[in-house]
Design brief:
Layout lengths: L4 H21 L3 H17 L4 H24 L6 H10 L2 H13 L16 E3 L4 E3 H13 L13 H33 L2 H14 L8 H21 L3 H16 L5
Antiparallel strand pairs: 1-2
Length: 258
């Protein structure tokens, strides 16, 4: 069955978006401009779905600035920990670029900043469970990241303080970008499945920019899928930020981020 122009637009724009993330992550800036040009052409080619093309395009513009800024500080005489924290704080450039896209598309920026409704029941395939139990199960699963610390020789105060700073910056900004703006905007303009797929894969691929191999970065997409499910089930971004913080804290304390 032939695909509709709408479907072809969504597939091609997502492909350009992913290509842009990959190329810019490897700092192939000249090649990275080509997907951005393609998204600009899609944006100008018609009035329908402009907000989707705009979202992808401005994300890549913000990511380009992020990459330039992180490359710039690499020449500074600062500690590795300070460099990493500055790197994570520069994610604000992507968030700001997305806010510009939302403004141009005349859409409100929605972060789902409401608190969870603790009396809500979460629908599962064959039953429902209470929201507190759902979150407790998620927290228990996320906390397994700390298991390797059982065999650790101890955690220094400096590492613990660095872990806190990294966790707050990275988890909060990444969730605001991917689940706060990207997911909510795509759901308003496309299907839930499309929105979850794009944001989960994009979230995983963005880890290429911090030196994580492609296969492992794609595995991070399952984390993005989990966080998307959490926010869709709870209608609140706070649980996904909390789970993300748990994972980031464990990764730093385990020495996987340095």
């Amino acid at each position: 069955m032939p695909r509709s122009p709408h479907t072809l637009f969504l597939i091609s724009s997502a492909a350009l978006f992913f290509a842009g993330i990959i190329l810019l992550s490897y700092r192939a800036y000249a090649w990275g401009l080509l997907p951005m040009l393609g998204l600009l052409i899609l944006y100008l080619s018609g009035k329908n779905n402009r907000s989707v093309a705009s979202l992808y395009l401005f994300f890549l513009i913000g990511f380009l600035i992020f990459q330039w800024a992180t490359g710039w500080i690499n020449g500074w005489n600062i500690s590795k920990e300070t460099n990493i924290l500055l790197n994570r704080s520069f994610l604000i450039f992507i968030l700001f670029a997305l806010a510009v896209s939302q403004w141009m598309s005349k859409e409100k920026v929605r972060f789902s900043m409401r608190l969870p409704d603790w009396s809500k029941r979460i629908s599962m395939p064959s039953h429902t469970i209470s929201l507190p139990l759902f979150l407790l199960i998620g927290l228990a699963g996320s906390s397994t990241i700390f298991i390797p610390l059982i065999w650790s020789e101890g955690i220094s105060e400096s590492l613990f303080l660095f872990a806190i700073g990294f966790t707050i910056l990275n988890a909060t900004l990444e969730e605001l970008i991917w689940r706060g703006v990207m997911l909510s905007s795509l759901i308003r303009n496309t299907s839930v499945i499309y929105a979850v797929t794009v944001t989960s894969l994009g979230f995983g691929l963005l880890h290429l920019s911090i030196g994580i191999p492609l296969l492992l970065s794609l595995l991070f997409s399952f984390g993005g899928l989990f966080y998307s499910i959490v926010i869709l089930k709870t209608d609140s971004i706070y649980p996904s930020i909390a789970f993300h913080m748990v994972m980031n804290m464990g990764m730093v304390l385990n020495g996987w981020i340095n």
